[in-house]
Amino acid sequence: MVSPADGRIVHLGRVRRSRLEQVKGVTYSLESFLGPQDWRGDGGRGFSPQWRPGHRLYQCVIYLAPGDYHRFHSPTDWHIQHRRHFPGSLMSVSPSVVRWIPGLFCHNERVVLSGEWAHCFFSFTAVGATNVGSIRIYCDQDLRTNCARHVQGGYHDCSYTAWAGPAGVPAPKGAGLGEFNLGSTVVLLFQGPRHFGFRTSAGRRVRVGQALGSL
What are the UniProt keywords, alphabetically (predicted)? Predict the structure, then answer.
C-alpha cells in the first residue's frame, strides 16, 4: 500500500471498538463517519462490506496542506463499488484545529468511496475543508459537491456496480482518483491481516507513491 497523496500523516493504526481517531486521543464513531453500513451483508442500507474472519480494521489519516499537490491517487489495487456523498460544513482540517473539535470529519463535506481489495473491505474518503468544498472524482461525472441544493445532515448514495458491473470500477495502484481545489484530508479505512504493518508513523511527511504499509 502506498500514499495516495502528498501530505503529512496525522494518525494511523488499528480501529478499536468502532472508534476512529482524528488525532491521538480525539475519536469519533465509525458509523457517524461512513453512515449506516450493512456489515453483516444481510440487506441493510448502503454498501454491504464483507468481513473476513481473523482480519483487523485499520485506518490512515493524511493531511494535505494548501501548498501540497492537490490530486489524490489509488493507494493499492482495488475496486470501487459504491460512493456516498455527505454535504456538510467546510471547517479547517489543519491538525491544530482537528485536535480541538471532536467529530470534525463527520461534520465536514466528504465523499466516501467503498469497495474491496485483496483483503476484503477498503474505503477511501476525501474530506472537504475551508475553501475546499469542491471534490472531484474522475470516474464519477454525476458527483456535485458544494452545491446549495444539497441539505446538510443527509447523504447521497451511488452504486458503481449498477453501471460498471459486479466488481465495480477498477482502481489500480497509483491511478488518479480525483482532486481537491486546495489541500484537505484523506482517510483510508480498510481490513487487513493481523500481520499487516505500517511503514511510516504519525507526524511524518509522505509523497504520492511512498510506501505506507505492507504484509
Answer: Decarboxylase, Lipid biosynthesis, Lipid droplet, Lipid metabolism, Lyase, Phospholipid biosynthesis, Phospholipid metabolism, Pyruvate
CA 71, 96, 23, 129 dihedral sign is: negative
Catalytic residue among 3, 6, 79, 107: 6
pLDDT higher at 187 or 146: 187
Grid cell 458527483 in the structure block, residue: 143
Grid cell locating 139: 470516474
What is the structure's pLDDT at 150?
56
Of 3, 114, 123, 184, catalytic: 184
Q: How confident is the model at residue 42 (pLDDT cuts 50, 70, 90)?
A: very low
For this structure, is 6 an active site residue? yes
Could you say which of 11, 70, 73, 82 is catalytic?
A: 73
Is residue 79 annotated as part of the catalytic site, yes or no?
A: no
Residue 23 pLDDT: 58
